[in-house]
Structures are given as structure tokens and as C-alpha cells.
Design brief:
Elements (H helix, E strand, L loop, with lengths): L50 H19 L3 H13 L14 H11 L3
């Protein structure tokens, strides 16, 4: 199979540092350039999460938050989680619906449970 029927070759510099890219340019690199030669922007990351501890800490902090704010614990838990992540548990961003009552109204209006 020739190149026109299948994959087209890609310049090495498109994914490995220190080589010309498709426009025959060398991207800027950190100094000294030899440290970046044959490097890449691709990253592999292994992440360990202790979900049980996360829930325990959030629940503990939510008890205090509920007392201070005068709200019930489930609302406090949901609000703290949303404030930490930036979204409510159904994915709606805090920038769209900034507080718990508005979030509940939206969920009722859209039929989301």
C-alpha cells in the first residue's frame, strides 16, 4: 500500500523534541537544549486515590459546615464537594448554578434526580 492510500508519514519533530516539525521548524526548548533532545510532551501518570479517606474527611468537615451555615448535613456534603471540584455531582458547573437551592430548582425543572 502506498502512502496516498493509507497513513501519511509525519515529521519526527511533531512528537519528539529536537527534530524539525512539519513546517521544518525546531520548537523552542528549555536550556540547555541537549536535555530536551529526544524528549516528548507525552506524560504517563499513575494516580493513587484513597476514596474512603476522602469521603471521611468531607463528611467530617461537612458536619462543621452544616452547623456554621445552619443547613442539613446532606446539603453541606454536596455543597463542600461541589466547591472542591467546581461542579455539582451531576456535572453542572458552579459557575452556572452557584448555590445548592438553585441547583435543586434546576434539577426539579429538568427532571434530573
Amino acid at each position: 500500500m502506498n502512502a496516498k492510500e493509507g497513513w501519511q508519514p509525519l515529521a519526527t519533530g511533531e512528537f519528539i523534541l529536537g527534530y524539525p516539525d512539519e513546517s521544518q521548524e525546531l520548537p523552542p526548548t528549555a536550556m540547555p537544549p541537549n536535555l530536551m533532545h529526544n524528549g516528548s510532551f507525552m506524560v504517563y501518570r499513575k494516580l493513587h486515590q484513597n476514596v474512603g479517606s476522602f469521603h471521611a474527611v468531607v463528611n467530617q468537615e461537612a458536619e462543621q459546615y452544616a452547623k456554621v451555615m445552619g443547613i442539613d448535613p446532606p446539603e453541606a456534603i454536596e455543597t463542600l464537594r461541589a466547591k472542591m471540584i467546581g461542579r455539582w455531582s451531576d456535572g453542572i458547573p458552579l459557575s452556572t448554578v452557584p448555590d445548592f437551592s438553585a441547583w435543586q430548582k434546576l434539577r426539579t425543572k429538568t427532571g434530573v434526580r
